[in-house]
Structures are given as structure tokens and as C-alpha cells.
Amino acid sequence: MKKINTLLFIATAGLIACQPLSQKAQSSFDDSSVFSNEALTRYALSGVYMSYAENGYGTDYFLLYGPNTDVEVVQNTTDADTPNLCRYSISPTVAKLDIPSTTGIFGGNFRGIERANIALRGLEQYGNIGENKNMAALYGEALTVRALLYTDLMNLYGEVPARFEPITTETKYLPKADKDVLYKQLLSDLEQAADMMDFKSLPRTTQAGKACALGMYARLAMQAAGYSLRPDEGKVNTGDPGTVRKSNDPELQAEVLYPKALKALQQIIDYGGFHLYDKFEELWQDYCNQNTSIGKEVIYALPVNGSGTHLKFNAIPDTHVFPAQENMNYNGVQSNLYFRYAAYDQRRDVTCYPTKIGSNGVADGTKINPSIWYNGKFRISWMKSYKMASRDAADQCKYIYLRYADVLLMASELANALPESAGGGLQKAKEYMRPVLVRAFQNEAKADAYLATYEDTESFQEAIMEQRALEFAGEGLRRTDLIRWGILKKTLDECAQDIQDLRNRAGRYSGLPTDIYWRVKPGSEDLELYGTTADEQEKKTVTDPDGGWNKIGNFYGRIGSYRWELMYKGNPDEKTWRPIPASIITANMGVLVNDYGYTL
Amino acid sequence: MKQAIKTAMVCAFLLLLAGSVDALAQSIKGKVTDEKGHALPGVTVYFKGTTNGVVTDEKGAYAITKRGGSDVLVFSCVGLKEQEQVVTNRVIINVTMQEAMNFLDEAVSIGYQEVKRKDLLGSVVSVDNKAITSLPATNFAEALAGKMAGVNVTTAEGDPGASVSIKVRGTASITQDGSPLYIVDGFPVNSIADLSPQDIKSVDVLKDAFSTAIYGSRGAYGVVLITTKEAARGKVSLSYDGYYGVKMFANKDAVQVLSPYEFAQFNYEYAMAFYRGDRNKAQYKYNQYFGEFEDMALYKDAPANDWVGKVFDNLGYTQNHSVQLSGSADRVRWNASYSHMEEQAIMLNSNYKRDNLSFRAFFTPLPKLSFSFGTRYSNTLVQGAGANSVNDKGTNYSNGRLLSALRYTPIPFRYHEEDLGDVDVNSYFGTNPIQDVEDNDNRTSRENWNINGSATWTIIPNLKLKVEGGMDANTSIGDRFYGLTSYYTRFGAVIPNQPNSIHTDQKDRTVRSVNTLSYNFKNLFRDNRHVADVLLGQEYSFSTGNSETVTAQGFPTSFTSEMTRLYRGSAAQITSSTNTFSENNVLLSFFGRANYVFDNRYSLSAALRADASSKFAPQNRWGVFPSVAASWTISNESFMRGLFNVDQLKLRYSFGTAGNNRIPSGNIRTTFFSQQNNRVYEMPNMIIPGEVMPNPDLRWEITYSHNIGLDYALFHSRLSGSIELYNNTTKDLLINFPTSGTGYNTQYRNLGSVRNRGIEFSTRFIVVEKRNFGLNVSGNIAFNQNRVISLGGVDKIETNSGYAYGLYADYIVTEGEPLGMMYGLQSDGFYTTEGFTPRMQGNQLFWDPDPEMLNPEGVANSRWFAPGAPRFIDQNGDNKINADDRVKLGSTLPIGTGGFSLNGNLYGVDFSASFNFCFGNKIYNANSVLLTQRGQYEYRNLSKDAAPGNGHAWTNIDWNTGELISDPELLAEVNKDATTWSPYTVQNFFSDQYIEDGSFLRLGSLSIGYTLPESFTQRFHVQKLRIYVSGSNLFCLTRYSGYDPEVNCRRSTPLTPGVDCSAYPKSRSYIVGVNITL
């Protein structure tokens, strides 16, 4: 009996050792602990922003989103995958983009979206957002970043799956959702987000605050109400070739969205916390010095350290800083852009840079090539506080996503389209645009004279379209604009013709002299060009009294035919969007299908 | 009768002889029988220490004459225990000999029970200590290669901390580690790398699911049981084993790079081709580093820097000292051991040190109660980051110290002396290989503690209760250093151009308790032919861990690896810091087994184990794994008695299921971890979910295994062995499946099925076993066929190893194919002048291809598409060479593996040689991909195959004038002996010529020892003194063109096996050692 007792004792002891199969880690962070705490929730949101720090942005979005438009162009002239991507010709298997992991932009942004979804669900359950204003602001911020990540995905791929809840077994694979569904969700999210935040809650432009939510509301509203290539109604995710059209959804019409969008922008303007730089150049000098601090023009800049390669690959090649690296430039501006600006427009010489920086740190006129113009907004020579030690190092510049000039020009466009009763009208539209022009021309009279030439809404819309090109060239906004106006292909065709005209000095360029002259602008490291307008017909020499002019014979005639021939390879109105990468299509088990005639 | 006469004659002769020589001659005779009374012929009978001996006849009789000297008569025979009899004045000495307690008779603890190896019903292979200590390797498992049928042991590289992979009967897991469960003295452990070989008594590998089923979960890929030495009964004994030896590069000449002249030639050709013959422009690329073309001949006399030699061909040394002390008192037996192992490897800055301590004790205070206690401690230090980039952070696939040494310029470049300003010389020219080693350093220090104890109580006769408990605790601290030239510093770091370090601190702990109750029915049966026993048990194990990773950046540029480790706290910035608490991994199990044997002829056994794992959600938590086995010992049937010299013939069959839950914990729901990541501007602190999507539906992976075995022993067990047939099907495989585009990279899923089936033969033949001369041969060979039966609706799983640009994936898993299947282009030699028309444009030469010629878009060189370009077969006829033209190129899995060994002794001299082989596997020679194509790098060296002209590679240069040849006829004439394409390619391609046969036969170890006569050593109170010399990896016969065919460099995922890219070269070693027992 004693033995049996002992046996029972040991058996019991053994079973007591078998605690329940507890799964928690020693200090496991679960939803309830993270999202009931403000600091931990802030850390969880940092994880959402992490998408921007991945290669998807560093080597893809910053380089390949933007060109080709009538203002931006990819410099590489070969018939290779990467430049063809900018020419609306891309296969789903292009190795550079076919990144299955979360370091690619598709996977990476959906990772950010999933993290935002987890945060939103957590905050709803544990965040006490009804009463705690700080937690509510975090909720608003999460909604805004999610919308931002979605915006970039939609600008690249057209339609993407609608993931607005954390993934479950049932939603592991999702087909692409209709743009209407996505836009309605994002617009209502941004509306709600703006309500939950206040202007002063965020100290940085690298976080998506109230102004960002409001500005993005307007930008998305204009995109939602505008044109775009989309599959026929109900045909999303079926392999439909699609057509360029507007939404049929009554909620997504301009008359519904525009008044709300204008009100949103008006809120930013009324807030008064943002203003234009006095000089256009200063904005970009600050950008190159990683200075995008709050309270100036920048509303939202991408929070990237380390892998931010926007500047260096879009910048003027600088043999002074990087002797062995002449060819690091990916994108520049179109050959005719310089000639679209008025000679007195300050933005011209900031934006259009005709040559490389030589090894002495001065623009090298001998390398002038009329086919290749660099984007002068991005200059390594402007970097002062931080020097890139090698071409492989990160530039650490924060990509400017939304700035106050955009708010003004968007407001101008919205007002122009709206009746006075809705806060709009031509006069109002001109008022919104005026500060942008005054800064560009550095002259109020010239700005007013410019505005006075437009007497009706239709022609002023043309002016807005042109001003957006001149103001934002090289900033990656043009493609989105052209798409929503429904004139992507038309504009590219016109631009191709215009460059041919420039080459032949025909059309509006008739009367230009054959040769141009350059010299280093006295007291500067930049070049001065002469012979770029019909008025400048004088012949200059090195020994001129005003000094140091060098001639480039037959300048315009040397524009390469590739500048118009390679404007696009695929039809931009049919291949507006990228295909979803092959490996991602494969991994989604046939649920995700590419539209727009892409095979696979 | 004849024999008797012969014997009589011999006796008479001996008597005569004795009579004449020694008056004290004494005649002795007798009969030798076995335990059952049968006569034993062939037994050697001799006087100890003399040459005076005879052999018993057919009736077991012998007669021998004593002629002074020794008074001890020795009886010896293969398979029987040697016996000694003191003669004194005896005339008739009859002897009954017992079967030797050989290896198969030893009791080992398999499946919670002590069993004799020969009674096993499942499929088990075993080796003893001798086999393990024959090879002076840091990881004893290396010595197991080729020793056990169906157990494939491969060493991925030649570094002292190399990862050794053990695969039992092929591989079933697609994405997970398919290594077996390791159990040391009953305790499951994660790694066996840090055990001291001198401490190991035996290794048993359980191959079929019946044998492993009792281990339930985790046993699906086989179980490796390691039994450490325990105290022998007897007085206190002290022994010392030690060796010292040298190590050297084993096959240094396998890969040859271009000589300085050829290197200059290639760079000239490249520059000219790049600028299409425009010499003014070509000067930009060539002349500034190499000088004038006309002076190229000067390079013929230039001495080449042998970088591979400088970095890898150093004389290493290895030494090991091991002391064992054991003893027993009345009720206590104990042993203690200490080992120190040290190795300075052949590569610069690469070394290894380990100290092991162990102690075991058995205490039997009462006849019915016994206790055991054991503890092991090891401390290992591995220095060096290895030769390839598999463990480098944020790296490029082609980095690696060996590649760096192979590809670095053999001559000093002008830039070495001159300041090139801000030219990033590392990107441009590569890194000086010695600097590269210094700038990629690693120091890993591991500490393992294992403590366990048990109590066994015989409650009533034949009913035993055993209570075991134990703890296993591991700490691993890694300090990885990235110097100025390292890829990570240049491309991945937030603070560029300053040294970085990554510090990892991983702690794991497992606590385990087992209770078993066993009963033997021996008193319940009246008929003692019935033998039965039953076992019931319960096990609980709990594991937890924590890992911390700290990335420190911005160290002063003067900091070395050691300084960053010591002064990490003063780094300019901690850029990233991650702290992860792994979810607790809990396992609760109940198991039972019943064995029944009738008359030593028929055996039946059944086992059942139920496991609950916390890795699965409650509804999927329990897995139940039943198994049965039966055997028929034919040789014990009456009709077999005395037939064919058959000693043993046993037929076995088993069927069983085994589970697997070997995925990380915490995958059934979202959990967060904390990280600091400075790449996100001003918001570096984050709490984020992992990159793996949770899956609440996860369940057990199960292997169904059938095994038929035949064991035989013939001619007094002179010939013995076994044949086994098996069929293992693994279902519901736990696969880390890609979930691209969802926001997670992968998700663990139960998906698909893989089958391994095969046949194994192992045999041992004792050629001679005489008193002073013995020789035996043993060998084994195993054939395994691997097939993916199903991928659960998924089309294929594709992986890109990184050497095949534009080809999308070079490893593809599909249904109906084996794992490790590689896909690539099929080479079609190279383009000749045919189809090309030369055209001069200005001073540039263009070769216009005919319109119908294949467009090498995306794969070959589109910039310089000219005669000499590589050509591939356009499989789908679309006139393009791209991913659609991939074909199956073969699998890295071998058809067969095995080994054989020779052991012998002659007087005091013993020798052994052990070979292992492998055949039918393919190797992905990525070194060759990078050494026969320029790819995207300039000024890097290539292999000899790429030498322009001279019967090697195609050349487009007229080496007399330095101009590109534009006359097609002349070009064809110049290249009539060309064997390969012009290596000027713009990106790397992967084709069938980089797939090589990896079959090999290796002499793993060869040793010769001499044991000094006991009579001599005992004068110094030494029981045994053996000295030996041994060589390892003495040769490796193979057709593989790389350094070594046993290689696996892309180990970050099991989906890309068999890639040879910058592998640490294997060494050859020679040692001198001594074994002393006091």
C-alpha cells in the first residue's frame, strides 16, 4: 500500500510538472499591451513608416516613378528593361522590379498596410480613442500613412487588393479591388483622420499629420474624380485591357468631391502654418541639405535615412565629388523644358541644368549636350552639412511628397472648376495661384500680367496645367496629373513633336539662332547660356568685351532623335500601370490577376 | 581421423623436439565447446607471450606441449570471448567458451529502454568510439561520413566551425532543416557540434519510423542517439589521449587564375570590345592601369601575387588533449573527463578552441534503488567569418573571401601607389584579399550546460519506475565586424565609411522531465519461451529563448575587430537593436510500448506516442503516432540448425508514423518584437510583427515509414551485415511558403508530400583473425530516391540562388521531381564569325548579326554581340534567350552514398583506413560562373579557362597589332582552336556547363598505431600505451573541377543546396597521437 501511495505521489508530481501548454513569451507584446499605451503605439506606427526605408522606395520608386512625361525623362537611351519601364513598356518578370519579398515596393507597402491595419484594430479595441485625444491622433496618423502607402501602390499598379483589415486565413489571397472601392475607403479614411488630428500634434514633416491628411484628401479626390486607365465596370482582376475613363460611381464625381477637397485645402491655408519660400532656389538648397523642417513649405516628406537615394540618382552628375562616377544619373528633364519657361522665371535655371559639374566643381560647358538636361533641383554641390563620402553612400535627403505650392495650385484648379457659390470661381482660382507666380517671377507685376491674360475658366485650366509642369518638374507629380486629366499619351505626343520642332527650329521655335554660347556665369559656378530665344541672335566670342563666351555650333540640330522616338515604347494610355510582379502573381495562387493585357 | 593423425604426428614431433630441448616439456590436451556443449573447431590455443600454438580440430579437440616460459594458455576465436587458463600441472584442460560481448550485444538506451542492439526490430545503425576518434575534426560528426548505411554526413565547407549536415534516408523537408533529432544520453539537444569525441562511447542512428516513433514528434527525420562513456567497474583508472598535427590546403591547384600577362590581355580585350575598337577610348580603361599595349609583353615576366596562397595556404595546426578519470567504489561508479581542442586553420584569422568538462556518476544505495547524475559543459570559441558571404549581412551574392582572393588583381595596380581621390576602389578593383579577411571578422563564443539526473526504483520485482529530469542551457555570443572595405559598410550602413559591428546574444534553455514505468512479464509465464515487457511513460519539455541583436556603427576608422568588440559601448551610434523573446515551446507527451518474443524466433512490438505541442492551436495540438514491428529470427528455427554455417538470419518488418513540429514557436498568432531601426528618420524605435504570416491552422507533419530488413551472420560471424528496404512518405509537410505581396514574406503551412525510398546494404567481413594478425573489411552503400509527390495544389516553389541574372529562378521544386533540382540554359558553345557582318562606323567596329540570328537579349552581352559571344539553345524557338529557355539540369541529391573501411592489426601494430563516397549528385559551380565571365565587374581576375586566345577563350584581338580583327576569315582562323567563349559578358548567366558531377571517393582517414607490449609498459605502471600517426582527407578522387565536391554554400535556405561559391577550402591533416591508460 505504501508503495502504491508513493507511486501515486510520483505520478501526480509528474503531472503537476505539466503546466498548461502556455504559448506566451516571457514578455510577449500582444495587441492589448501595445495599443493601450501611447508610446508603444507610436513605436508600432514607426513600423508602418518603415516601408519607406526599404529598397522598394530606394531603388525603384525614387528612380523609376515619374518619367517619362512632358517634363521628366529617363536618361538611359538603351532598349533595356529599366529605362523601358519609364517608357510604358514593362514585363512582369523584369528582374529589377520582380521582388517578391517585403523589400520590394508591392510587398513592402502591403507590409506597412498590414502593420497599419493591426494598429488600427488594436487602437479600436484597446486605445480608448473616444476619450484619449492623443490616442485618437495616433489613430488618425495610422489611417493617413495607410492611405499614403495605398496612393503610391495605386499610382504604380492602378488597382491593388483592398486590405483594410489584418490578414486572416480567409483573406490570405485577395483579388485586385476596383479603384472606386479603394478611393472611397481612402477618402473617407483621410476625412476621418483629419478630424482626429490637430495641426500642431506633429513636430515633423516626416510624419503624416493633419495637413498631410487634408492635402492628400484633395490630391486623391482629384485623382478619383479624374480620368484613368481602368478595366470596364466589374472587370477588375479578369485580365481586362481597360479604357481611359472616369468613375461611374456617383460619390466619386467632381461635383461631389471638389467642394470637399477645396474646403480641405482651405483649412491648411487658413491654418497659416505653412508658407512658400521666398526664393524657389532656397527650397531645393534646403532639400539637398536634408532640411525639410516643419513650418515652411514642406508638408510631408518621406522619413528615410540610409537608403534614400532619390537625390543622388536624379542629381546632376558631379565629377567634382565623385570622379569615377560620371554616369550615375537616371533621370533628367526633357530637352525642351528649358524653353517652356519665360526667361525671367526663376524656376528655369533651378530646374533645367544643361551640363555636368566638372572636376573643378564648376559646370563643365564642354559637356553640353542638347539631348541631355539634368534636373537642377538636385545638386550634390549644394550639400553642405552632410557630404556623401562615396557614390554608394546614402544621400539622406527626404523626398518631398507634398508641399505648400501644391496645395495652392490644387486649390486654384479646384476653385477654377467650381462655381463661386461653392467657394470657387476664376478670380478665386487666380488668387490661389498668384503667390506661386510671384515667387517664380520674383515680380508681382509680371505675375498679375500673366494672370490677366486668362479670361475664362477653360483657358485658365490650361494655365494651371502648364504651371504645374513648370513648378513640379522632376518631382514625380506630373504623371499623376496627366493621367487624371486624361491626356497622358496626347501630352507625350505633343512633347515629342515639340522636341522635333526645337531640333528643327520650326513651329514656335522658328527664328532661334543655329548656335548657342555658354560661359561660366561671373561670380558663380553655374553656366549662362546665350542663344536660347529668338531675340538672342548676336554672335559672341571668347574675347567679347563681356567675356568668355564659347560657341556650340548647330546646337538644336544635335538633339538626338531618340528624344522623341523613345518618348514611349508601349502606348501610355494602355500601359499606364505597371504589371504586378510575376513572383507575386505566382505566389497568390491564381487569385491575383494582371489586367491591361499583361501576360502572366 | 586424418586430422587426428596429423595432430598426433605434430604432437610427437613437438614431444621429440621438446624432449631434446627442454626437459620440462609438458603435454596438455582438451576439448573446446560452446555454451550449449557443441564442439568448437578452429579455436586458436597458444601459450601467452609465445609463438607456441595450435588450432582445435573438427571435434573441438586440441593438444599442445608446454615448453617452459609462459604458464598461461590462451583460447581465442572470432566472435568468442578470449579465455585464459593457468596450466600449472594440469594435463587435460576442457574449456567452454562464451560468445564475445561484442558491440551488438551491448545494451544501449534506445526509446527509453535498455536494449541490446542485436535484438532491435527497427532499422538502427551504430558506430563506436574508435570510428569517431579516427578523424581529428572539431565536429565529431564529420567522422561519421560513410560509416553508416543510409546516414549521409556532409561537411558544407572546410572551416573549423563548419556546419555538418546529417541526413537520414534522404531529405523530406523542402524548406525546413531536415536534420535528425539529436539525443545525448537521453536528452534532446539542438546541436552536437560541441561534444568532445573522446567522451562518446557510441552513436546509434534510428532510421525507420518504428524506432523513432517512441520519440514521437521530432523523430520524423531520424534520431541520432549519442551515448557518452560511463565508468567501468574496477579500480581508479586514468587515461590520456592527445594528438598534435598540421593542416594544409588539400587541393590548392584545382582552380588556376590568369597569369599577369593573360590578365593584361583580357583587360585589353575587354577595353577594346567595350569601345568597339576605338583605341583612344580604350586607353581610358586599359592604359591608365596597364600601360601601353606595346609593352604588354613585359607582363610575361611579372611575378603574380598568389592571393589564394596568401590567404588560404597557411600551415595550420590542430591539437587535442583529453584526460579521463574513472573509478568505482562499493555502490558508486563515476567518471570525469576534460578535453581541450585547439585548431589554427589554414585561412588567415581563422581558428577554433574548445574546452569540455563532463562528469557522470551512478549510485546504488539499495539494490532496488539507483541514481544517476550527469553534467556536461562546453565552451567553444570560433574565430573568423569564413570564406563565403552566407553569413555576411546585406551582402552581395558574389562576395566572399575566397572569391576575393581568386579575383583580385595578380599585379599591383597604379592606384595602389597613387591617390585616386574619391574613387571607390573597392567597387572598382575589388578589395585586397588580406584586407578583406581583416574587414570581415567574426568571433562566436558558445557555452553549453547540460545537467540531468535520474532515479530508478524497482517497486516490486520486474516493475521499474524511472524518474528523469534535466536542463540544457545554451548561450551563443557573436561579434561580427565589418571594416571599411566590407560590403555592408559600403552599402548597407547608415553611417558610411566607418567600421560597424553586429553583436548577437542568443540564450536558449530547455527543461525536461520524463517518467517511465516498465514491467517485465518474465515471472508470469510458466513457459519460459515467452518473453514480454511493457513500458509506459510521460514526458514534458519546456523551452524558451531570447535573442538580442545590436548594430553599432560609426566606430573610428582605426578600429579593428577586437576593438569594436571591447569598446562597443562607445560606438558613435547604435543604429539598430532588436530584442526578441521567442514564444515558449512546450511539449507534453504520453507514450507506451509493448514487446513480445516467442522462443527467440518471433517478435512483435507495438508503440504509441501522443504529443501535444504549443506550436499548434488547441484544435490541432495533439498528434498520435502509432507504430508496429515484427521479426522472425529464421536462424533459430530447428530446420536451420547447423545449416550453411548460418549464425544469424533475421527478417524484420516495421511500419510506423513519426511527427515533426520543427518550425519556430509563435506562428499561430501575431506577436510583436521590438527593434530599433535608424533607417526610419527620427522614428527609429519600433514594435513590429515579424515577416512571417501567422497561420492558426498549422498541424503536425507526419512521416509514414515502411522498413523491411534482413540481418545475417555467417561462418562464425566472419561475414555479417544487413540489407534494408524502406519507403518513407512525409505528408502535410511544414513548409515556409512564400506569400509575396501580402505584406509578409512567408507563412508556415502544411503542404504537400515528399517520398524517399531506397535500399541499403552493409556488410562486415573478417578476413583474418589470428592472434597477432587480424584484418577486417566493412562497407556500406545506400541508394535513395527522392520525389516530391505533391505540392498541395501549388505549381512550384522557385528560388534564385543569385548567380543567374535574368533567369528568375535556378532552383525549382515541382511535383514528380526530386528536391534540389536546378534549371538553367543549355549551352550551345559560342558564336563564330558565321552570321556576322563586320561594319566600320567611324573608328568603331560593329558586327551586324543576320536578322535570323538568335537575339541573346537579357542574358548574354547585348552591348558587344559579336563573334565569340556565348550561345544557348533556344528551347521554345521564340528567337530570344530568356527564362523561358530554362531546362532541367539535374539534382544536387546523390543517387547513392556509402563508405568502406579496412581495419587490421599485426602484432602490436594496428591500422585503419576509412573511405567514403557519394555518386550521382550534381554541383552548381558558382565559382566557375564568376571566374569565366566578366559579369559586371572590371579589373577582376578570371580562371585560366578564360585566357584569351592560346587555345582557351575566343579572342577578337590581333595580338600583334592590338587592333580588333575585322576580317571574318582571319578571325575564324585565329580562333580555330578556341574552346570557350569570350569572357566579356555584361551579366552572369547560368547554363549547363556550370553543373558538374559531384561524385567522389575520399580517403577520409588513415591511421597506423603501435601499442607497446604490456610486459614492457607495466614496468612503468602503464596498462596501455599506444602511439599513432594519422592522416585525414588524404585524397579525394573526383571529376569535379572545383576545390572539393562536398560543398554547400547557400545555406540560408535549404532550397538552394549544392552551390559552390567561395567555399572555405578543405584541409588535409597529419597528426601524431598517443593513448595512455594508467
- Low confidence ranges of chain B: 1-23, 417-423
Which structural class matches the secondary elements of chain A?
alpha+beta
The global form of chain A is globular
Determine the CATH topology of the domain at 1-60 and 97-177 and 570-600 in chain A: Serine Threonine Protein Phosphatase 5, Tetratricopeptide repeat
Annotation, overall tally of beta strands of chain A: 11
- Largest sheet: number of strands, sense, barrel closure of chain B: 22 strands, antiparallel, barrel
| Secondary structure category of chain B | mainly beta
Fraction of residues in helix of chain A: 40-55%
Query: What is the mean pLDDT of chain B?
Result: 85
Q: Into which percentage range does the β-strand content of chain A fall?
A: 5-15%
How many helices of chain B in DSSP terms? 15
Account of the 3D structure:
With 600 residues, chain A is of the alpha+beta class. Chain A has a domain at 1-60 and 97-177 and 570-600: Serine Threonine Protein Phosphatase 5, Tetratricopeptide repeat (Alpha Horseshoe), CATH 1.25.40. Chain A is 43% helix and 6% strand. Chain A contains 21 helices and eleven strands. In chain A, helix 9 runs parallel beside helix 18 (478-485), helix 10 (254-271) packs across helix 14 (404-417) and helix 15 runs parallel beside helix 17. Chain A is globular. Chain B is mostly beta strands and 1078 residues long. Chains A and B meet through helix 1, helix 3, helix 6 and helix 21 of A and strand 25, strand 26, strand 30 and strand 31 of B.
